[in-house]
């Protein structure tokens, strides 16, 4: 006949089904222990009979159920009023976790909350000045907040500079055309067209060539989410162009993102972008 004994060791005090102290043991087959702290705990099972005893020790890691803020931040570091601001936050605790952001002007009423950890804050229409961003992590055990100060600078006054028409992108020079739904990163500054690194936007002509189906295309700042509006629309087989002012990425990369959404399976088209000028502070 075997006799099993559990020895439970931890750095702090604990509670068993019966009164217990540090390093206590239990002869129950399935003892219950409640730990007041999180972290690594050691549990040892010892089995004995008239021939002797053997034992095995397992380390149990207990997670803290309370919500905690992991990280919270935003980019760009010096946003201007009217720009999109990327908010990124993480949290820990017992799932499910609810993450949210609450922007508010300093000494003003809170703006609409934004649900999620990694989200975009659209500052279009907001006045320049100081704001706060409150990041909250919440679960059934409670909630915790952290507050970040942020200042929206006044939008820069931009001057327009013309250049000789210059093509910054042409998919026909590559191996494959532009596939429907596949986002492309296009460099808007530097290169052979002479657009300086500090440019904020381009005056451009966008052309979609021989699409296999009807659809639309969007060209937008390289660090932004896809917009709800289209830069141009087209029919199947049509070559269509449109002039547009294309804002560049606000992270200093000078990049654009282009995406074509075309009806039909395995749809594709060619795309070109020609620049005739740029905007610079």
Structural class: mainly beta
Mean pLDDT, rounded to whole units? Answer: 90
CATH architecture of the largest domain: Sandwich
Shape: elongated
Number of strands: 22
Task: Find the CATH topology of the largest domain.
Answer: Jelly Rolls
Calculate Rg over CA atoms.
Answer: 30 Å
Estimate the strand proportion: over 45%
H and E string:
EEEEEEEEEEEEEEEEEEEEEE
Largest sheet: 5 strands, antiparallel
How many separate domains make up the residues? 3
Determine the number of helices (DSSP H or I, runs of at least 4 residues).
Answer: 0
By oligomeric state, this entry counts as single chain
Give unreliable regions as ranges.
1-21
Distance separating the two termini: 86 Å
Under CATH at level 1, the class of the largest domain stands as Mainly Beta
Helix content: under 10%
Overview in brief:
The protein has strands at 3-9, 15-16, 25-26, 33-34, 39-49, 52-62, 68-75, 84-92, 98-105, 114-115, 118-122, 129-139, 142-152, 159-170, 178-179, 184-187, 201-209, 215-221, 232-234, 240-247, 255-262, 268-280. With 281 residues, it is mainly beta.
Structure description:
With 281 residues, the protein is mainly beta. It folds into 3 domains: 3-62; 68-152, Immunoglobulins (Immunoglobulin-like, Sandwich); 159-280, Jelly Rolls, CATH 2.60.120. It has no helices and 22 strands. Strands 14, 15, 17, 20 and 22 form a 5-stranded antiparallel sheet that branches. A 4-stranded antiparallel sheet has the order 3-1-5-6, with no helix packed on it. It is elongated.
């Amino acid at each position: 006949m075997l006799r099993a004994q559990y020895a439970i060791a931890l750095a702090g005090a604990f509670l068993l089904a019966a009164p217990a102290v540090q390093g206590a043991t239990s002869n129950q087959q399935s003892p219950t222990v409640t730990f007041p702290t999180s972290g690594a705990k050691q549990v040892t099972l010892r089995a004995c009979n008239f021939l002797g005893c053997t034992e095995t020790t397992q380390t149990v890691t207990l997670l803290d159920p309370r919500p905690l803020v992991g990280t919270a931040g935003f980019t760009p570091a010096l946003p201007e009023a009217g720009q999109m601001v990327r908010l990124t936050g993480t949290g820990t605790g017992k799932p499910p976790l609810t993450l949210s952001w609450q922007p508010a002007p300093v000494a003003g009423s809170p703006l609409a909350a934004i649900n999620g950890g990694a989200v975009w804050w659209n500052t279009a229409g907001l006045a320049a000045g100081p704001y706060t961003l409150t990041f909250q992590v919440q679960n059934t055990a409670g909630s915790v907040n952290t507050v970040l100060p942020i200042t929206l600078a006044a939008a820069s006054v931009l001057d327009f500079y013309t250049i000789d028409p210059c093509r910054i992108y042409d998919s026909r020079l590559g191996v494959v055309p532009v596939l429907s739904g596949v986002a492309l990163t296009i460099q808007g500054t530097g290169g052979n067209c002479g657009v300086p690194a500090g440019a904020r936007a381009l005056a451009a002509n966008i052309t979609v060539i021989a699409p296999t189906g009807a659809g639309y295309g969007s060209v937008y700042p390289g660090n932004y989410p896809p917009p709800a509006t289209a830069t141009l629309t087209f029919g199947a087989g049509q070559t269509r162009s449109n002039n547009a002012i294309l804002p560049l990425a606000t992270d200093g990369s000078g990049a654009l993102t282009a995406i074509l959404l075309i009806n039909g399976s395995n749809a594709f088209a060619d795309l070109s972008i020609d620049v005739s000028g740029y905007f610079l502070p």
